[in-house]
Amino acid sequence: MKKWYGNSFRLGMIGGGQLGRMFIQEAANLDVHVHVLDNDENSPCKQIASSFTKGSITDFDTVYQFGKDKELITVEIENVSIEALEQLESEGKKVFPQPRILKMIRDKGLQKAFYVNNGIPTSPFYLINSKNEISTDPQVYPFVQKMRTGGYDGKGVQILKKVEDLSKAFDAPSVIEQLIPFEKELSVIVARNERGESVAYPSVECQFNEEANLVELLFTPAQISEDIDRKAQKLALELIESLDLVGILAVEFFLTKEGDLLVNEIAPRPHNSGHHTIECNSTSQFAQHLRSILNLPLGDTSIRTAGGMINLLGEQEYSGEVIYDGLEDVLAMEGVFPHIYGKVETKAFRKMGHVTITAASVELVLDKAERVKALIKVIGERRNN
Amino acid sequence: MKKWYGNSFRLGMIGGGQLGRMFIQEAANLDVHVHVLDNDENSPCKQIASSFTKGSITDFDTVYQFGKDKELITVEIENVSIEALEQLESEGKKVFPQPRILKMIRDKGLQKAFYVNNGIPTSPFYLINSKNEISTDPQVYPFVQKMRTGGYDGKGVQILKKVEDLSKAFDAPSVIEQLIPFEKELSVIVARNERGESVAYPSVECQFNEEANLVELLFTPAQISEDIDRKAQKLALELIESLDLVGILAVEFFLTKEGDLLVNEIAPRPHNSGHHTIECNSTSQFAQHLRSILNLPLGDTSIRTAGGMINLLGEQEYSGEVIYDGLEDVLAMEGVFPHIYGKVETKAFRKMGHVTITAASVELVLDKAERVKALIKVIGERRNN
């Protein structure tokens, strides 16, 4: 095999956010040089990338030119010029995850269709092109509307509770999904390399912040039966194989009150629900992503310690240059690992970092997580009116 | 306290080797921007530093100019222009470890005198200025000759076994030390911040490669009594306090057959004998160094798992562009963590990387370490004659 470390191998990363940054930290362990394209000169990857190119990740020419002198191309965000990646792939470049998968996944309508076509359980749904196709029959409320494309970090998704909510419905092609009164939300990360080997991480359990529509806290191991954990891992592995994906896939599940697992969403990249793997598992999701796209042996996914993860979101009232209030108090605690993403400006609910918490049991993790949440706040130089 | 993360705080690192590189990987977790000075454009830090300045780290003007616009300056190697660091310190810059300590430690004669003056046990010795001061009395052989300055990575240290060896003695100011028939060689890492808090890591046990005069394998926890471990930690803490050092200090001990601990050498920076802390301890030595020099709360030093560390040294017969033969086989093993330093060229016994090994017990660690050693070799494009 060609040398994949050192100066002669350039890995191109489209997107310069925190996922790319944590990936670069891991890639340094194997001396894989990561070159980054992003439009924001203050993006998290900038400080530690082998090189940083400023440019639009959704522009065909920019992405194509960036990719041309790289040996391997990957992404850390879905919203990129997939057409440019397809062109690079057609010219013989390795591009993982494969562009056809990015294309399918970024359209939540196609995602849903894929589940149905491959026998993967998911919640009942129908597709609409515009707002006026939504039923006004009070019987069908509440339901979830998800824009087919363009949603990100909780945006483009909302619950419509009653007919009166129709006025605020997105007027865009959407998935209309039955609202599942789920018991728990779970996530499983799987990885697969080019030679078809695949591995799954144990399930994690997620708690949402309703207001921000973002994961607020997750923990591992999930408080579910072994049987459910095994089923979730099996479904996630079936999914990555059906997709024939090379790379990492995060699979979010609803666990219903009846004990059924329904796939909610998938993401073909390292994922927020896998950040704890840096401290809690033998192989982090970032190291695993690297192994999978380089066609290396995949790493052990087992849990080293019970743990949890809290997102550090920008407080709603602040903007301007970020200040992590209470960071030093948190550093004084044992088994607490802050990750600061290096974003210059904070804004309401922006993901500015996360904190991993380890302890001897999930109960102790949750307790410590509450203390961490009370101590640390992401504020900014300016207080909004 | 002033903000120590983000764009407004520049940490200057003198030296661009692997210690600096692993430090930068950790510093990224807290968004501390590390700017590096090194003469070698291919130095390990180059790929991931916030900025890289090419220049001689032993030249007064170069180091002084580099340090002038930094908020804090640290080193990852002792052989730097200490005079420039003293000048920066006198102008009010924070420089940790303090230049006066670097000055003392880089002279093994002064180091020895410091131990004696502070009641720290060390092996008997005397100082010489040149070769002809060495005794020709066969009774005093064997002994160890250590050049007072300029030794590094096993160079400048040798055992003279008999009078006939005098011809190869270093003709330089040296420490002549009694050869201690030690039972084990131990290392303890301690850290201390500006407000005077200090912590010690549990002892690790080292096995040397006689030929290269370098640590070949170390493991944790050391196979010693609790009492000896406690004594070693206590001595190391006494040492860092006597020095009034801010930063990290690696203390190497001989454990004699009689159960006495003698300080062999110290290093005021992250150290080869602490690399395993990345995977094996709650806080890595690199994260701890960062915490100590930023005057942050120090991190928990406890052992998460038994582990060991093997240095990946360049095979003697090779030079040229490095190839890590067997790296993929090693990646297929569980609990095995390679760290590749990103040096472009290999040479005989050059430190090109290390591998950390974790397992349920030291016995299993040592067993796995043998398998890793048999699998991986650092070779190069050229085979020497």
Could you characterize what this model shows?
2 copies of one chain form a homodimer. Chain A has 385 residues and is α+β, with helices and mostly antiparallel strands. Chain A has 10 helices and 21 strands. Chain A has helices spanning 18-27, 60-68, 82-90, 99-105, 108-117, 226-243, 277-280, 285-293, 327-331, 362-375, and strands at 10-14, 33-38, 51-54, 72-75, 94-95, 125-128, 143-147, 157-160, 174-178, 182-192, 198-200, 204-209, 214-220, 247-256, 261-267, 306-313, 318-325, 336-340, 345-346, 351-359, 377-383. In chain A, strands 10, 11, 12, 13, 14, 15, 16, 18 and 20 form a 9-stranded antiparallel beta sheet that branches. A 5-stranded parallel beta sheet of chain A has the order 3-2-1-4-5, with helices on both faces. Chain A has a 4-stranded antiparallel beta sheet with strand order 6-9-7-8, covered by helices on one side. In chain A, helix 3 links the parallel strand 4 (72-75) and strand 5. The model of chain A has no long low-confidence stretch (mean pLDDT 95). At the A-B interface, helix 1, strand 17 and strand 18 of A face helix 1, strand 17 and strand 18 of B.
